[in-house]
């Protein structure tokens, strides 16, 4: 009976319609309490990132900019490091106009699986790079968030109207996960803040996705107890609807199942409950009892640098460089303020020193008439304050802090294209790049891992919900796509990102090393056409085989040609003798 009830929940449009008011009240109380616990656990991580973002945006109303009288400059170390790191991760999204590749699983003597795998690979590349006008742009945005915050999220869902998988990049501060969990798969709760207008909520109600409620009674804006939010008036208010992936025991068998609960926290109003699993995710034992249910939250997390304390939320450049950027900014402002005061000057005058104005401000190209007793030295009536020139010690310290910050933020000369050894041997530059990107390689591996989870989830959604056949043409190949082609038992889908190669500099340095080998004795044993194809592919040249000239016949040996001609002359002489 328990399994039948769970299968009924899977088919239900809204499980909340099947529950009593008391059950709904208990569910929303537990969900709101769990949300508060999770939000408190990651409060410091979110606050640190928000403060760092103020520094990146050069906002002068932040805490660390109010204690300076003159200079408001902020050194752009964080902004530069984020741009550099994101620009090195972004090229790994695509390669030769592809985003994904499929590997065949098991024997394939007739090549049927290989044909399907190639079709799926081309379909994903077409769907994400050609058909979708937002996936690549949102991926750039996501990688920028990951580099800055340390953790980013993408939500996947299947749109039945368009019959396609859609994705949405979520702000890291709008995804609340308990910081003490080890991974998103093992998280007890995942809460996503959704900001919806009255029209959007009404659409969900009329499509039976939400319960019928009086939207005007909901409090608009983020959940908060601040009084100033109560005074805000908006003709088209936005409501914060929380979407929580959690565990509930709705079949009363003592085992909690994964569900998705939509609710409004301040009014404790449940809007919808849906099964966070499919029928094939329910596993039973020999006695017919449920032993495990695999959840499907449809949220993919991306990570940058693992937290040394083992917390879930990873570190980004915001955490790594915030205090260094703050120190650099402090020293830089002291130097600027010191130079400004030394240039402006100022001081004291005696009572005998008379002028039309109480304060004297010197202007360029202008002389001011003063009234002082005769035979009195003007310098004896004025005492300038002893403003010093900017300190050389502070200037040296500033350079030290900037160099340390660039090293921490992976902004090295060899990786930014600014190197004194540009004409050096390829092997030397390759070693420099290798050392400069050693700490960068784990980030590429994490990107590869997250992209693989995303593509696998898309693969599953198409195999589960797609109903239409598609006929597409990608790279001059006609492809027919249907639900049957998405067979997880016969193929494995992976991104084109190479987790063993962390930058294009590696590729170009290796290409240069191969070209230098052509000037060594190794050139005699190299396969030149294969070498040329590898170099062209490394440079991302399309269809490199068409650029390779067909092999020319070998040049004849001069000695063999001489022997051949001598033989022909002798044969002609014999024939002439026979004629005579």
Show unreliable segments: 62-69, 225-231
Main sheet makeup: 5 strands, antiparallel
Q: Give the averaged pLDDT, no decimals.
A: 82
- Give Rg in angstroms: 35 Å
Strand arrangement, major sheet: 4-5-6-7-8
Oligomeric assembly: single chain
Helix content: 40-55%
Fraction of residues in β-strands: 15-25%
**Based on helices, strands and strand pairing, what is the structural class?**
alpha+beta
Number of helices: 15
Shape label: flat
Total strands: 16
N-C termini distance: 114 Å
Explain what the structure shows.
- The chain is of the alpha+beta class and 580 residues long.
- It has helices at residues 2-11, 21-41, 43-56, 77-89, 112-131, 135-149, 198-206, 317-344, 392-408, 413-416, 426-436, 441-465, 504-517, 528-538, 558-579; strands at 100-104, 151-159, 164-170, 175-177, 190-197, 238-248, 257-264, 269-275, 282-284, 290-293, 299-303, 347-349, 382-384, 470-474, 477-481, 491-495.
- A 5-stranded antiparallel β-sheet has the order 4-5-6-7-8. Strands 3-2-11 form a 3-stranded antiparallel β-sheet.
- Strand 14 (470-474) and strand 15 (477-481) form a beta hairpin.
- Helix 4 crosses helix 6.
- It is flat, with a radius of gyration of 35 Å.
